[in-house]
């Protein structure tokens, strides 16, 4: 028997036709089951995206009816058409659904297998086309749902972006205003403060006549406090200039050794007064010349030495300077002070961030020193690191860049 031409391009369709062909020829019960399985697979497994409710029930009823129908056939008959003739009453056939019925009626009435197979092919095509159509509808529906969900999300996202942008603009504006305000106020306060300091120093120098010991003591306290205030205003001014991008760094040659030695001699008396020691270690490999802004370099190292003295109660500090690499020189300030916990080490370089490892906030300050150190060193192209243990002490190391021209001169 020649196989009828299969119009569907679905491989499952071809398999089914081949199976049915064998089925009607051999009438083997295993083939009936195989048909059953393959058809179910075609209908369900390969179309898992199709919503099962309506299609599944419809197809299941179709397949089960066909299976029951074929199972009623007596085994051993030679021809598929005999299955219908021998095994089933016309009533049973009529109860089957429309397409199946058409198939079996064709078998009964015409005793022709080829028209029957044509019907099966049509049947399969109808089912497959139906599935494809339903699948397309579902896909289109899903696409439409996804499209509108995306549209909603995108418009919400656009609105949120605009809000964030406007908040960011407001914050930038507020920050700019804050920096300008701090810069103006610091400047305005530094001028009268300079006058107070100058007058107190004139009193101390006995320009307006000799002072008794109590007057000398009070004058000294005025001078000390004025210096503290001046330092605070200077830090505020520096930070606001850094934040507003107005800070200009000089680029000139200087001697790292000279700067470190000056700082050592400035802070040694302060440390001694507190009962602390300060050691200076200058590595012979320290370059004699570097390039950059010597005033700001001095400010960075001074802040670290000042903090080492401020946060140390017993022992002291060691200042060590050396060439750190072919492109950098470094200053390490190591103290035996109160130390900083690992957690707090992450914050100490933030503006206005103070930590209280001592308990009781007894050290004062405004929390700008290390922020300025960090910002200045970063602006210079260097970096700063910290290692510390609570109760044991801290080591701050700052790395300054050496410029290539200097390195060549120097080496
Ligand atoms: P300030 O000293 O004005 O509080 P800084 O920015 O200089 O501000 O320092 C930030 C914080 O880092 C300080 O509040 C202090 O807790 C901690 N700190 C800085 N240097 C040291 C140090 N050498 N030893 C222990 N703690 C330190």
């Amino acid at each position: 028997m020649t196989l009828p031409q299969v119009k569907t391009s679905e491989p499952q369709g071809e398999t089914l036709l081949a199976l049915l062909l064998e089925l009607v020829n051999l009438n083997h019960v295993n083939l009936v089951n195989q048909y059953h399985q393959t058809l179910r697979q075609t209908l369900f497994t390969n179309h898992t995206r199709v919503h099962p409710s309506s299609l599944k029930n419809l197809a299941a009823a179709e397949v089960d009816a066909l299976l029951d129908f074929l199972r009623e056939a007596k085994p051993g008959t030679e021809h598929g058409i005999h299955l219908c003739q021998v095994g089933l009453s016309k009533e049973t056939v009529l109860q089957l659904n429309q397409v199946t019925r058409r198939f079996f009626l064709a078998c009964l009435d015409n005793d022709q297998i080829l028209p029957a197979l044509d019907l099966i092919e049509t049947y399969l095509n109808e089912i497959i086309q139906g599935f494809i159509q339903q699948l397309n509808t579902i896909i289109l529906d899903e696409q439409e749902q996804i499209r509108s969900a995306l549209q909603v999300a995108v418009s919400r996202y656009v609105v949120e972006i605009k809000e964030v942008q406007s908040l960011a603009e407001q914050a930038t504006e507020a920050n700019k205003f804050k920096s300008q305000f701090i810069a103006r106020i610091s400047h305005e306060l530094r001028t009268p403060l300079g006058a107070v300091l100058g007058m107190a120093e004139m009193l101390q120098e006995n320009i307006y006549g000799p002072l008794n010991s109590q007057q000398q003591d009070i004058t000294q306290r005025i001078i000390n406090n004025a210096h503290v205030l001046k330092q605070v205003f200077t830090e505020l001014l520096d930070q606001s200039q850094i934040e507003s991008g107005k800070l200009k760094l000089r680029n000139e040659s200087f001697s790292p050794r000279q700067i470190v030695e000056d700082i050592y001699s400035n802070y040694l008396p302060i440390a001694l007064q507190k009962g602390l020691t300060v050691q200076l270690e200058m590595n012979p490999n320290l370059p004699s010349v570097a390039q950059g802004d010597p005033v700001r370099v001095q400010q960075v190292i001074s802040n670290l030495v000042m903090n080492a003295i401020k946060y140390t109660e017993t022992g002291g500090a060691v200042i060590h300077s050396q060439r750190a690499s072919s492109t950098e020189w470094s200053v390490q300030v190591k103290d035996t002070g109160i130390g900083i916990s690992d957690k707090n080490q992450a914050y100490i370089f933030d503006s206005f961030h103070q930590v209280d490892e001592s308990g009781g906030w007894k050290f004062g300050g405004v929390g700008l020193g290390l922020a300025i150190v960090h910002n200045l060193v970063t602006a210079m192209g260097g970096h700063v690191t910290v290692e510390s243990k609570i109760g044991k002490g801290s080591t701050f190391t700052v790395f300054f860049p050496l410029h290539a021209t200097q390195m060549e001169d120097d080496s």
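The longest strand covers residues 393-401. The chain has 13 helices and seven strands.
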